[in-house]
Amino acid sequence: MRLNLEFYKQPAVCLAPVLLGKVLCRKIDDKITRFSITETEAYAGENDTACHAKNGRTPRTSVMYGRCGTAYIYLCYGIHHLLNIVAADINEPECVLIRGLEGISGPGRLTKAMRIDMSLNKEDLLNSEFLWLEDGEPLPYTTAPRVGINYASAEDIARPWRFIAI
Length: 166
Fold this sequence. Notes:
Number of helices: 4
Distance between the termini: 24 Å
Order of helices and strands: HHEEEEEEHEEHE
Radius of gyration: 14 Å
Strand content: 25-35%
Oligomer: single chain
Largest sheet: 9 strands, antiparallel
Protein backbone atom coordinates (compact mmCIF):
# COMPACT_ATOMS: atom_id res chain seq x y z
CA MET A 1 0.00 0.00 0.00
CA ARG A 2 1.34 3.43 -1.03
CA LEU A 3 2.16 5.84 1.81
CA ASN A 4 -0.29 8.75 2.21
CA LEU A 5 0.04 12.47 2.90
CA GLU A 6 -0.52 12.12 6.65
CA PHE A 7 2.42 9.73 6.92
CA TYR A 8 4.82 12.34 5.47
CA LYS A 9 3.33 15.26 7.42
CA GLN A 10 5.64 15.09 10.42
CA PRO A 11 8.99 16.65 11.33
CA ALA A 12 11.95 15.12 9.47
CA VAL A 13 13.46 13.87 12.74
CA CYS A 14 10.27 11.86 13.33
CA LEU A 15 9.84 10.76 9.71
CA ALA A 16 13.41 9.52 9.21
CA PRO A 17 13.25 6.52 11.61
CA VAL A 18 9.76 5.42 10.52
CA LEU A 19 10.91 5.33 6.88
CA LEU A 20 13.17 2.40 7.81
CA GLY A 21 11.52 -0.73 6.45
CA LYS A 22 9.29 1.20 4.05
CA VAL A 23 9.70 0.20 0.41
CA LEU A 24 11.10 2.52 -2.26
CA CYS A 25 9.51 1.70 -5.62
CA ARG A 26 10.72 2.72 -9.08
CA LYS A 27 8.95 1.94 -12.33
CA ILE A 28 11.00 1.93 -15.54
CA ASP A 29 9.19 0.85 -18.69
CA ASP A 30 6.97 -2.00 -17.47
CA LYS A 31 9.24 -3.17 -14.65
CA ILE A 32 8.84 -2.13 -10.99
CA THR A 33 11.87 -2.39 -8.71
CA ARG A 34 11.32 -2.43 -4.94
CA PHE A 35 13.88 -2.11 -2.13
CA SER A 36 13.41 -1.74 1.61
CA ILE A 37 14.88 1.45 3.11
CA THR A 38 17.66 0.72 5.61
CA GLU A 39 19.30 4.09 6.32
CA THR A 40 18.09 7.70 6.48
CA GLU A 41 19.19 11.13 7.69
CA ALA A 42 16.98 13.99 8.89
CA TYR A 43 17.43 17.65 7.91
CA ALA A 44 15.37 20.08 9.95
CA GLY A 45 14.91 23.33 8.06
CA GLU A 46 16.37 26.80 8.17
CA ASN A 47 17.72 26.50 11.74
CA ASP A 48 19.69 23.34 10.89
CA THR A 49 23.05 24.49 9.48
CA ALA A 50 23.45 21.12 7.72
CA CYS A 51 20.18 21.60 5.80
CA HIS A 52 20.13 23.08 2.30
CA ALA A 53 17.36 25.43 3.50
CA LYS A 54 19.69 27.11 6.01
CA ASN A 55 19.93 30.12 3.66
CA GLY A 56 16.21 30.26 2.95
CA ARG A 57 14.25 29.61 -0.21
CA THR A 58 16.28 29.39 -3.43
CA PRO A 59 15.46 27.87 -6.82
CA ARG A 60 17.24 24.68 -5.66
CA THR A 61 15.47 24.43 -2.28
CA SER A 62 12.01 25.66 -3.28
CA VAL A 63 10.75 22.07 -3.43
CA MET A 64 11.49 21.70 0.29
CA TYR A 65 9.00 24.51 1.03
CA GLY A 66 6.23 22.67 -0.80
CA ARG A 67 3.98 19.79 0.11
CA CYS A 68 5.42 16.85 2.01
CA GLY A 69 5.60 13.55 0.16
CA THR A 70 7.55 15.11 -2.69
CA ALA A 71 10.97 14.00 -3.97
CA TYR A 72 13.82 16.48 -3.57
CA ILE A 73 16.73 15.33 -5.72
CA TYR A 74 19.99 17.18 -6.12
CA LEU A 75 23.38 16.54 -7.65
CA CYS A 76 26.18 16.10 -5.10
CA TYR A 77 29.79 16.85 -6.06
CA GLY A 78 28.61 17.04 -9.66
CA ILE A 79 28.49 13.22 -9.74
CA HIS A 80 25.81 11.63 -7.54
CA HIS A 81 22.09 12.24 -7.51
CA LEU A 82 20.74 12.09 -3.95
CA LEU A 83 17.12 11.37 -3.07
CA ASN A 84 15.36 13.20 -0.27
CA ILE A 85 11.74 13.04 0.84
CA VAL A 86 10.10 16.33 1.78
CA ALA A 87 8.68 16.17 5.31
CA ALA A 88 6.66 18.40 7.66
CA ASP A 89 4.23 20.99 6.30
CA ILE A 90 4.19 23.63 3.59
CA ASN A 91 6.79 26.35 4.26
CA GLU A 92 8.58 24.11 6.78
CA PRO A 93 11.61 23.08 4.66
CA GLU A 94 12.49 19.73 6.17
CA CYS A 95 13.52 16.55 4.40
CA VAL A 96 14.90 13.07 4.87
CA LEU A 97 17.84 11.82 2.84
CA ILE A 98 17.55 8.18 1.80
CA ARG A 99 21.07 6.84 2.49
CA GLY A 100 20.65 3.10 2.06
CA LEU A 101 18.44 0.33 0.75
CA GLU A 102 18.46 -3.39 1.38
CA GLY A 103 21.63 -4.62 -0.34
CA ILE A 104 22.69 -1.11 -1.47
CA SER A 105 24.80 1.09 0.79
CA GLY A 106 25.24 4.76 -0.02
CA PRO A 107 22.88 7.43 -1.32
CA GLY A 108 24.65 7.79 -4.67
CA ARG A 109 24.75 4.07 -5.27
CA LEU A 110 21.05 3.61 -4.57
CA THR A 111 19.98 6.34 -6.99
CA LYS A 112 22.27 4.90 -9.65
CA ALA A 113 20.88 1.39 -9.11
CA MET A 114 17.29 2.66 -9.31
CA ARG A 115 17.95 5.13 -12.14
CA ILE A 116 16.85 8.12 -10.06
CA ASP A 117 18.08 11.43 -11.42
CA MET A 118 17.05 15.08 -11.76
CA SER A 119 14.17 14.14 -14.06
CA LEU A 120 12.40 12.93 -10.89
CA ASN A 121 13.05 16.07 -8.82
CA LYS A 122 9.74 17.41 -7.46
CA GLU A 123 8.02 14.08 -8.24
CA ASP A 124 4.78 13.68 -6.26
CA LEU A 125 5.32 10.42 -4.36
CA LEU A 126 1.61 10.25 -3.54
CA ASN A 127 0.54 9.96 -7.18
CA SER A 128 3.62 9.26 -9.32
CA GLU A 129 3.66 6.27 -11.62
CA PHE A 130 7.49 6.35 -11.68
CA LEU A 131 8.61 6.77 -8.04
CA TRP A 132 6.76 6.12 -4.77
CA LEU A 133 6.99 4.54 -1.31
CA GLU A 134 4.93 1.64 0.01
CA ASP A 135 4.33 0.40 3.52
CA GLY A 136 6.70 -2.22 4.88
CA GLU A 137 7.76 -3.84 8.13
CA PRO A 138 9.23 -1.43 10.71
CA LEU A 139 12.91 -2.12 11.39
CA PRO A 140 14.82 -1.76 14.66
CA TYR A 141 17.52 0.86 14.37
CA THR A 142 20.41 2.69 15.92
CA THR A 143 21.34 6.34 15.56
CA ALA A 144 24.56 8.13 14.69
CA PRO A 145 25.65 11.62 13.68
CA ARG A 146 25.02 12.59 10.07
CA VAL A 147 27.96 12.32 7.66
CA GLY A 148 29.41 14.62 5.01
CA ILE A 149 28.30 17.85 6.70
CA ASN A 150 31.60 19.37 7.84
CA TYR A 151 30.30 22.81 6.81
CA ALA A 152 27.64 22.75 9.56
CA SER A 153 27.94 23.99 13.14
CA ALA A 154 29.55 21.65 15.67
CA GLU A 155 26.16 21.27 17.38
CA ASP A 156 24.43 20.25 14.15
CA ILE A 157 27.26 17.90 13.16
CA ALA A 158 26.88 16.07 16.48
CA ARG A 159 23.11 15.55 16.27
CA PRO A 160 22.25 11.81 16.10
CA TRP A 161 19.93 12.29 13.13
CA ARG A 162 21.23 9.39 11.07
CA PHE A 163 19.04 6.30 11.44
CA ILE A 164 20.47 2.87 10.54
CA ALA A 165 18.52 -0.39 10.53
CA ILE A 166 20.12 -3.12 12.66
